[in-house]
Structure formats: structure tokens, C-alpha cells
Design goal:
Elements lengths: L3 E2 L14 E2 L8 E2 L1 E2 L28 E6 L15 H10 L4 E3 L5 E3 L2 E6 L5 E6 L13 H13 L10 E8 L2 E6 L6 H4 L10 H5 L13 E7 L3 E6 L13 E6 L3 H10 L4 E4 L2 H7 L5 E5 L10 E6 L9 H10 L2 H7 L19 H4 L7 H15 L3 E7 L2 H15 L4 E7 L1 H10 L4 E6 L9 H4 L20 H12 L3 H18 L2 E6 L3 E5 L2 E2 L26 E2 L2
Parallel strand pairs: 5-14, 5-15, 18-19, 18-20
Antiparallel strand pairs: 1-4, 2-3, 6-7, 8-9, 9-11, 10-11, 12-13, 13-14, 15-22, 16-22, 17-20, 17-21, 23-24
Helix pairs in contact: 7-10, 14-15
Length: 556
């Protein structure tokens, strides 16, 4: 039951963005936090999985056809809602300055190096030489500084970079970034949405986000929103020998079952999904190969949840949020809706025993408590009516009906609202929701989620707010500031334990389970998880639903 905004590449969302937006660090996307299918968590069998990597000699040529769960609104990082699908689109035509390796460390990518001073307040970025944009324009520090300055001052992405002070091109290939406070996690931000470097025209032209120019492995050809996207191999790509396929074609297939059928029929060659029904149906198919991120424990996973608007007149009442948490039987949900493939989750870090104590504070199913809280609210304020929003996907509709039944048993009236994923993200940004299904928080470093949780990014209704839940807990903010600025690992861990503890008390997020993403592909698709970074390190394994066509090739 979620929407994905997340994961590690958000604007800055996510080998995802992370949900929705790609502000995240190195795995998903800024808005990687939003939009997605029914919630799923870790714990399913991984028997029969492939690595998605190949050491065979690549075969060149062919067309890679992919089915994606959603479209997005713009390639321009300043305004684009880079959810999971958006990150795949963006990484096709753009490159990020940094990328995350298989050890969870941020490494240079389009940047040749990124070096901090001792206090981590001044960062010197060297631009990789010999790189050109798709139109032949050389990449220099001017274009990098322009891109970073643009996202720093944009209404959507700017709140993720509040700690960034100045960006200065000091010579043709050097950019110096100064921060207001120590910021050891800054490299992770440059591996996500705010780290993409589009051509200046893509940012300055109001329609530039519809016809992107980048330095990436593929050159934009055609995009019909809601239908398809085509791009051809970049003959001048700076990573010699890449890409292998001549062309990529992405098709928007929002319904997970329809996407599955398209793969089985051969209409597409590869697809991603976080819906357990696809894992149930496809993991035993001998004609296919599959890979999940259930075993990828780098950093913080994407979480499936119900997100609650803490500023709405109804759900701002803590009794209501507590009632929602106590009324939901997650164990039953996992058994019935997710076929027992995933485990319930009670906090941000379901696979890390370090956070076990803070996780114990999270409310578990207790219908009597839920009823008592509803009665208390209604005695004071009248009938409790709550709206639950999700996407138009059929499976998310089933989730909504389960939620309606569960919460309704506690005595409240639950109304269901289904919209397209882009609209769900927009509503979350503007605060036009009470509760909604959501996916988010995948991050190689927890600081990457600062923008989602900070009081400094919580705006009023009708204003864009990266703190979608609009939770304004000063104890959370204090912990986030400590985690951001400290260079001591133990201090940082304690800070995020406090965040996990406070979320169990504030309840801006009603956790369901870890989101498990899977990638399913025809046998001919090779090395779809085999991206190697310029320094020779393997990139972070498949995570958050984001696969990269750069290294993929097709066998005969």
C-alpha cells in the first residue's frame, strides 16, 4: 500500500531514487518517494533469482523494450517529479555527477573527483574531461555550476539543498561548493536528481524538459507522455564502448498485471514492479529471469506505508493517527494481499537490529484501542471521516478496499480516492490529501531523507512541501541536524534511532512492509544489473526499481 517517491536518487528521491523525486542519494529518486503499487516488504523467497550481471562478450545492436509503471512530467530536474520510472528516464539521457557503488559509497561518475576540506564544508569538484552533450557542446564547469545553481534555487528541489551555500566555477574544469554546515553526505545528493547535468537549454527553455539534451548513454528521440519514450544510442558517449543496444523504447503500463502480460507476450523485454502479484506469478517462469532487491541491504530500504497529512484538520489529531495505526492488521494484510511473500514492518530500518528498541514503540494491531480512540475523537468533534488516496492501479484499488474495511471496523467512515500517479504526487506536494498509499526513503545514507522529514521543508497546504506528511516535531529536527553534521558514526546512528523512535510516536507514516522491487526480463536480456562505475567498482545492485539500460545487451 504505497506510492513510491523514493529511493536513493530523489532530487538529489534513489540505485534508485529512491519515491518519487530523485533528490535521494544514489539509489532511487527525489520523488521516488511517491507513486507505486501495493506495498510489499522483505522476506520473500529469492530462490531462482539471477544476478543480472554477465561476464560474456556483449553482443551489440538491437532494441531494448521496457515496461515502466508510470510516466512523469518533465526531464528538467528543476521541475521533474523523478519517481522510480522518472529516474530510469532521466538516467537514459543524463548522467549524475556521483553514483553509489556496491558497498554503498558515493563514487565519482560524471565528476572526475569530489574532495572535501577537513570540516566537510568546502567541496572541490573536478569535471571529467572529454565529455560532450548530445549536441556536441563540451561539458565544462560552467554547465555543472549552472545545473547545480538551477536546482538549488528551484521551488521543487531547492529545499533539498538548503544547506548548500554557494556554487562557483573557479576554472574551466573546477567547481567549488560551500555549505553552511558540515555535510558529509553531500556526495550522495549528487548521485540523484540534483546531481544530473542537463544542457543549459533543457533548464532555460520552458519546454526544454520535453526535449532533453544531456551527456547520457542515449539521445532523446521521441516522448509521448502516457504512452512511450524512444531514444537512440549516443555515438559519442564518454564511457567508451557503451551503450550496447542501438535503441531503447519505454512503454508506460501502469497496471501491474497488464505489464506482466506484455512481458509474457513478448511486447516488452523487461519490466519492473513492486507488486507481489508479479513475484507470485513470474518467479517460476522458465522463459523469464528475475531479480529482486530483497537481499540488498545497503543503507535504508524503501518502505511501503500509508502516509498521513499531519496538517489536515482531521488527521492532525494524534488520536486519529493512532486509531489508524491500531486498526490496521498488517499481519493479515501480508498473508492475504501479498501472499505471505513479505514481512510486516514497524519502522524505518526493518533489517537493522540497531533500531530494534526504537521500533518496539510502534503501535501494533489492537482493534479495541482503535475503537476507543475513534469514540474519543467523535465525542469531541463529531463523526470521523477519513479519505484514503491511491493510484488508479487495480491492485492499489484492492489495497484501498482492505484499508477501508480495516479502518471501518474501528468505527470511522473511510472514503477511497484513486488518481493517476503524477496527480497523487502533486497532491502530496501541495498537501491535498488526508492519507495515501506511499513508497519512500530508500537511501544509501539516512541524511538523504533530511528533505522529507525536516521541519524546514514542511510547508503549509497549497504550497509545495518536500516534507509531504508535514510532520513538525522539534525532536526529529534536532536529531536530523545531529545526523547531518556529525562525522562520528555512533553519534549519527543514535540520531537516526531517535528519528525512528519519534516516528513511532508522531505516526506521520503508518508502515506496512519493506518495499521489494523486482526486475523481470526475457532470457535474451543480459547484464541489466551490470553497470560498472568509471573507477572500476560495480555500481550498487538493483534497488528501488531502477535498472539502467547503459550496460544491458541482447543475446541472439
Amino acid at each position: 500500500m504505497r506510492r513510491d517517491y523514493s529511493r536513493r536518487q530523489f532530487l538529489t528521491g534513489g540505485a534508485q531514487a529512491a519515491a518519487g523525486l530523485a533528490l535521494v542519494g544514489g539509489v532511487s529518486g527525489l520523488l521516488s518517494a511517491c507513486g507505486g503499487s501495493t506495498g510489499a516488504g522483505a522476506g520473500g523467497s529469492t530462490a531462482g533469482e539471477v544476478t543480472g550481471r554477465s561476464s560474456a562478450t556483449p553482443r551489440r545492436g538491437g532494441v531494448l523494450r521496457a515496461g515502466l509503471e508510470a510516466d512523469f512530467n518533465s526531464f528538467a530536474p528543476t521541475v521533474g517529479q523523478f519517481d522510480t520510472s522518472g529516474l530510469i528516464y532521466a538516467s537514459t539521457v543524463f548522467d549524475t555527477l556521483m553514483a553509489v557503488d556496491n558497498q554503498g559509497k558515493a563514487q565519482p561518475y560524471l565528476a572526475e573527483s569530489l574532495t572535501p576540506n577537513a570540516e566537510h564544508t568546502v567541496w572541490t569538484l573536478k569535471v571529467r574531461p572529454g565529455v560532450v552533450f548530445h549536441d556536441g557542446t563540451p561539458l565544462t564547469s560552467a554547465e555543472v555550476a549552472n545545473a547545480l545553481t538551477a536546482v538549488q534555487h528551484a521551488g521543487l528541489t531547492g529545499p533539498a539543498l538548503l544547506n548548500l551555500d554557494t556554487v562557483t566555477a573557479t576554472d574551466p574544469m573546477t567547481v567549488v561548493l560551500k555549505t553552511k554546515l558540515p555535510w558529509p553526505a553531500l556526495p550522495y545528493y549528487l548521485s540523484a536528481q540534483v546531481g544530473y547535468v542537463p544542457h543549459p537549454k533543457t533548464l532555460s527553455d520552458p519546454k526544454g524538459g520535453l526535449h532533453p539534451i544531456g551527456t547520457g548513454p542515449f539521445v532523446f528521440e521521441e516522448w509521448v507522455p502516457g504512452s512511450h519514450f524512444y531514444a537512440t544510442a549516443n555515438p559519442h558517449y564518454w564511457q567508451r564502448g557503451l551503450p550496447y543496444v542501438d535503441r531503447v523504447e519505454y512503454m508506460t503500463i501502469s497496471d501491474s498485471t497488464a505489464r506482466e502480460n506484455a512481458l509474457l507476450s513478448g511486447t516488452i523485454d523487461i519490466m519492473h514492479s513492486s507488486d507481489s502479484i508479479n513475484l507470485r506469478d513470474l518467479r517460476g517462469k522458465s522463459s523469464l529471469q528475475y531479480l529482486t532487491d530483497a537481499g540488498n541491504n545497503i543503507g535504508e530500504p524503501s518502505m511501503g506505508m500509508t502516509m498521513v497529512n499531519c496538517e489536515d484538520p482531521v488527521t492532525s489529531d494524534l488520536r486519529v493517527r493512532q486509531a489508524l495505526a491500531y486498526a490496521f492488521d498488517d499481519d493479515t494484510f501480508q498473508k492475504i494481499h501479498n501472499f505471505g511473500l513479505y514481512k510486516p514492518a514497524r519502522g524505518l530500518f526493518p533489517n537493522d537490529p540497531t533500531y530494534a528498541e526504537s521500533t518496539k514503540l510502534y503501535p501494533t494491531f489492537d482493534l479495541a484501542k482503535a475503537k476507543s480512540l475513534v469514540q474519543s475523537y467523535e465525542k469531541e468533534k463529531g463523526k470521523l471521516v477519513v479519505e484514503f488516496a491511491t493510484t488508479s492501479d487495480t491492485r492499489n484499488g484492492e489495497t484501498a478496499q482492505f484499508v477501508q474495511q480495516q479502518w471501518g471496523a474501528a468505527g470511522m467512515t473511510v472514503k477511497i480516492k484513486q488518481v493517476e500517479q503524477v496527480q497523487l504526487i502533486t497532491n502530496a506536494l501541495q498537501g491535498h490529501f488526508q492519507t495515501c498509499s506511499w513508497r519512500q526513503f530508500n537511501a544509501a545514507d539516512p541524511d538523504f531523507n533530511y528533505k522529507w522529514w525536516s521541519t524546514t521543508t514542511a510547508a503549509a497546504t497549497n504550497a509545495s512541501s518536500l516534507n509531504f506528511a508535514r510532520n513538525k516535531d522539534p525532536l526529529v529536527q534536532a536529531a536530523l541536524d545531529t545526523g547531518r553534521t556529525s562525522l562520528d558514526p555512533a553519534t549519527r546512528t543514535a540520531a537516526y534511532q531517535k528519528v525512528n523512535e519519534r516516528f513511532a510516536i508522531d505516526l506521520p507514516y503508518l508502515f506496512n512492509s519493506r518495499t521489494v522491487w523486482a526486475c523481470y526480463a526475457a532470457k535474451k536480456v543480459q547484464n541489466f544489473n551490470g553497470l560498472t562505475l568509471p573507477g572500476g567498482q560495480p555500481a550498487v545492485p538493483f534497488s528501488g526499481g531502477v535498472f539502467y539500460p547503459t550496460s544491458a545487451w541482447l543475446s541472439a
